[in-house]
Amino acid sequence: MTQLLTIGKALNLGLRRAMEDDAKVVLMGEDIGRLGGVFRITDGLQKDFGEDRVVDTPLAEAGILGTAVGLAMRGYRPVCEIQFDGFVFPAYNQIVTQVAKIHARSRGRLAMPIVIRIPFGGGIGAVEHHSESPEAYFAHTPGLKVVAVSNPVDAYWGIQQAIAHPDPVVFLEPKRRYWDKGEVDTDATPDPLLAARVVRAGDDVTVLAYGPMVKTALQAAEAAAEEGRSLEVVDLRAISPLDLDPVVESVRRTGRCVVVHEAPVTLGLGAEIAARITESCFHSLEAPVLRVGGYDTPYPPSKLEEEYLPDLDRVLDAVDRAMEF
C-alpha cells in the first residue's frame, strides 16, 4: 500500500510496525510516552503498547543509555530517543565505552541491538544545544553503525532495519525535514540499510550529501541544470560504514566531486570522504574534491543560522570552483 507521508509520520509508522513484529522492542526517552515526543514521532504508541514498552524516562541521557545496555544484555531491543542532538553528550560515555564495545569485549557473546534516535541539524530556529551535527564523533567510533535518513521512504524502512540490526545503530533524523512529504510503499522491498543511492543522475559533477543536505543538493542540481550543468547527486544514507562503490563509479565518470554536510568542515565527514575518493579515483579526478559545510564556530543564534547553514548558493559556488580546473 502506498501512502503520502511526512518523514515524522513515516518514522512513527515504522516504529509501530517494529513493535508489532517483535515484543522485545522497547522505546525509551524523555516525554516520548504521554506527549508523544517533542516532534510527536512516538505519538499514540504508549496508548497502544503500554507504559512498559514506551517508557517516559527522567531527564538523564546517561541513565537512558545505561538502562538500554542492561536491557540489550537480557535480549531486548531498546530504541532510545535523544530529544535533541545537543543532549546526547551526557550519554556519550555510555555510547562509546559500553554500547560500542561490549560485543567485542565479550568475544561476541553479548549483542548490543540498540538504536539511538537523534534529531540532528539546524534550521528550526531553536536555542543553544538544539541544532548540532555530532555525527563525526560516532562515525569515528568502531562498533557503531551510523545512518542518516533524508526522506520518508528511508525513514519508514530504515528505522525498522536499524531495530532489527544486530549491532548498535546511531539513527540520525533531519529535524528540519520532519514535515517533508513523499510516497511510501509499505509493502515494497527496501534498499539495504547501509547502502548509498544515486538520487539524481548527472555527468559533470558528483555531489555527495546525507540527511538534511540531500534536499539542498537536489535543489542545487535543479538550479545548475538551468545553466546547462548536469550534477549527479548521491545520498550516502549510511556514514559508518561508508558505501563508496556508487560514489567511486560516479566520480570516475564525472571527474569532479563536492561533499556537502551541515557539520563544520574541519575534520568533518567530508574530510574522510575526500581522502577515500582521492585514493580510489586519483587518475580520474579533474579537480580536487571540494567540501561545503558549517563554519568552525559554535552553532549561532537562530537569527544567524541561515548565514551558517550550507545553502544552494554555497553548493553551486563549489561546483563552479570544481569546473574551473
From TrEMBL:
Top-level taxonomic group: Bacteria
A Pfam family per the record: Transket_pyr
Cofactor(s) this protein requires: thiamine diphosphate
SUPFAM superfamilies assigned: Thiamin diphosphate-binding fold (THDP-binding), TK C-terminal domain-like
InterPro entries membership: THDP-binding, Transketo_C/PFOR_II, Transketolase-like_Pyr-bd, Transketolase_C
Database matches in SMART domains: Transket_pyr
UniProt GO MF annotations: magnesium ion binding; oxidoreductase activity
Keywords: Oxidoreductase, Pyruvate, Thiamine pyrophosphate
Domain Transketolase-like pyrimidine-binding: 5-180
Protein name: Pyruvate dehydrogenase E1 component beta subunit
